[in-house]
Design goal:
InterPro entries: ICL/PEPM, Isocitrate_lyase_ph_CS, PrpB, Pyrv/PenolPyrv_kinase-like_dom, Pyrv_kinase-like_dom_sf. The chain is of the alpha/beta class. It has a single domain, classed as TIM Barrel, CATH 3.20.20.60. Helices cover 51% and strands 12% of the residues. The chain has 13 helices and eight strands. It has helices at 6-16, 28-37, 46-54, 64-77, 94-106, 134-147, 161-165, 167-179, 193-203, 222-227, 238-257, 270-276, 279-294, and strands spanning 20-24, 42-44, 82-85, 111-115, 154-159, 184-187, 208-210, 232-235. An eight-stranded parallel beta sheet has the order 6-5-4-3-2-1-8-7, with helices on both faces. The protein is globular and about 70 Å long.
Length: 295
């Protein structure tokens, strides 16, 4: 029997759904909710790990182990292929990139994207980004490809060059990354729909559109992106933003009103939670063990 490959599952999903919707899951519970909603692939955002798990900004502060902790928690309970943001590879050398790739495969991830910003990186939709040379980015991709212990594991190259050096530079970098072995391309902070078609035509591999809220990229629809030859559509933090807003509203109401009665109708019920995490099957096994011990 052949061994399961999360990377192969991710590639299959890209082939079967065009474009593939990849939704961000900030934790294991959200991964289960995404699967329940019908998504075929999920995503762990580096900015989400920083803000959600650490309470810190997305400025290259989080570590490989921080991300791996959330990867393991998600892959332990959800079998959807997981795309992971690994920033610049968590280190300054090819050895760091290689360690990151091997660890991601070991912890059950299906794919990563690695970017061409400097180590002190920023959110891709913030100003004043700095990028490394094209050669350094190519070296990152080569190190990632060479480190794969599963040939189906997906190496996606993200370039932030559009906002820094312009479209031609971004296209040039994307082409160079594909030549170095990148399986897919993630052009960050695209501002015009036809640009995606230009990337797809130039690189001839699947192109990802990052449709994040409150950023540089308009909230294009799946149909619009399909028409621009986009292969994957990413919604990195949509549920996370909604979750945060809901939490703020509930905290405010309890503090203001002295009760949660006025916001109960906005909450997931206890029974809904139990159903989403398959609580009753665990409890039934526990009951069976207790019953057996009493005999």
């Amino acid at each position: 029997m052949s061994q399961y490959s999360a990377g192969a599952a991710f590639r299959k999903a890209v082939q079967e759904e065009s474009p593939l919707q990849v939704v961000g899951a900030i934790n294991a519970n959200h991964a289960l909710l995404a699967k329940r909603a019908g998504f075929k692939a999920i995503y762990l955002s580096g900015g989400g790990v920083a803000a959600g798990s650490l309470g810190l900004p997305d400025l290259g502060i989080s570590s490989l182990d921080d991300v791996l902790t959330d990867v393991r928690r998600i892959t332990d309970v959800c079998d959807l292929p997981l795309l992971v943001d690994v920033d610049t590879g968590f280190g300054s050398s090819a050895f760091n990139v290689a360690r990151t790739v091997k660890s991601m495969i070991k912890f059950g991830a299906a794919a990563i994207h690695i970017e061409d910003q400097v180590g002190a990186k920023r959110c891709g939709h913030r100003p004043n980004k700095e990028i490394v040379t094209k050669q350094e980015m190519v070296d990152r991709i080569k190190a990632a490809v060479d480190a794969r212990t599963d040939e189906n594991f997906v190496i996606m190259a993200r370039t932030d060059a559009l906002a820094v050096e312009g479209l031609e530079s971004a296209l040039d970098r994307a082409i160079a990354c594909v030549e170095a072995g990148a399986d897919m391309i993630f052009p960050e902070a695209i501002t015009d729909l036809p640009m995606y078609s230009q990337f797809a035509k130039a690189v001839k591999v699947p192109v990802l559109a990052n449709i994040t809220e409150f950023g540089s990229t308009p909230l294009y629809t799946v149909d619009e992106l399909r028409g621009a030859d986009v292969g994957l559509v990413l919604y990195p933090l949509s549920a996370f933003r909604a979750m945060n807003k809901a939490a703020e509203n509930v905290y405010g109401a309890i503090r203001r009103d002295g009760t949660q009665k006025n916001v109960v109708d906005t909450m997931q019920t206890r029974m809904e939670l139990y159903e989403r995490i398959n609580y009753h099957s665990f409890e039934q096994k526990l009951d069976a063990l207790f019953a057996a011990s009493k005999k």
